[in-house]
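Can you make up a polypeptide sequence alongside its tokenized fold?
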Amino acid sequence: MANIKSQKKRIITNRKSALLNNDVKQSMRTAIKKFEKAIKEDVENVNEKFNIAIKAIDKAASKGVIKKNTAARYKSNLSSKLKQVTTK
């Protein structure tokens, strides 16, 4: 445990930010999983789930939880999956 007051404060703020970052990242992952589940089950809601997933990915990238290129890769993968479903 740290002895310096500022370091004790940094430990507390780091824990808080880690919890917030985990919430954002988990909501992004949930949105992606819901989109992939919609692909397998019903084709009607796929575009709506796709938009929600893209929004969650952009939100995580803007908050700095994931990097810009990682967000681009996720969005590219999702759009290719959507394209495969819609062209069938």
